[in-house]
Amino acid sequence: MIPKEVSEILNEQIEKEFYSSNLYLSMAIWCDAKGYEGTSKWLYNHTEEERMHAFKFIHYLVDVDEKAIVPATKKPPVDFKDIKTLFDMVLKHEQFISNAINEIVKLCYKTNDFRTMNWVQYFVQEQIEEESSVRTIIDKIQLAGDKNVFWFDKEMTTIRTAEGSN
Predict the structure, then answer these.
(1) What is the domain range of residue 145?
(2) Which residue of 68, 130, 138, 164 lies most exposed, with the fewest beta carbons within 10 A?
(3) Residues 23, 38: Cα–Cα separation, whole Å
(4) Angle at the Cα of 12 (from 115 to 4), degrees rounded to 5?
(5) Is residue 163 part of a domain?
(6) pLDDT for 86-145, tens place per residue?
(7) The domain spanning residue 64 has which CATH number?
(8) Is 36:153 a contact under the CB 8 Å cutoff?
(9) How many domains does the chain have?
(10) What is the pTM (predicted TM-score) of this model?
(11) CA-CA distance, 109 to 141, in Å (whole number)?
């Protein structure tokens, strides 16, 4: 068993991870419809990665004999101004997730739940990689400029998600 408040915050994180998956799926669909094949592929892969993060939280809760709750999630946006704005949103969302993970660590420390604190370190490192990856993409968008979106989209097929798929 883990402290009740830790179980609660982990269940809240499950909702955040599923929302992340849905957000990136919505973005991938938008890119797909606009002809951004490389970018949509990256986002589809990222969708699966976020879904797997939710499952990691679920499995952890089950492993420590806690109840994992399948959440309802709010509907993500479906329209985006352009690729740059879309990835600015991705970075902002990843920073939100990083802050949520940090809150889990703080609560684990406060409640002396050292096994969960140890377990969640994977996500601390993952968020460093997530934010770095998105910053690299934003840098490439800025380097490409508005007139070279085709080049940028082709380049996206070579950029891996944080867990390694492209």
Answers:
(1) 4-158
(2) 164
(3) 17
(4) 50
(5) no
(6) 999 999 999 999 999 999 999 999 999 999 999 999 999 999 999 999 999 999 888 887
(7) 1.20.1260.10
(8) yes
(9) 1
(10) 0.91
(11) 39
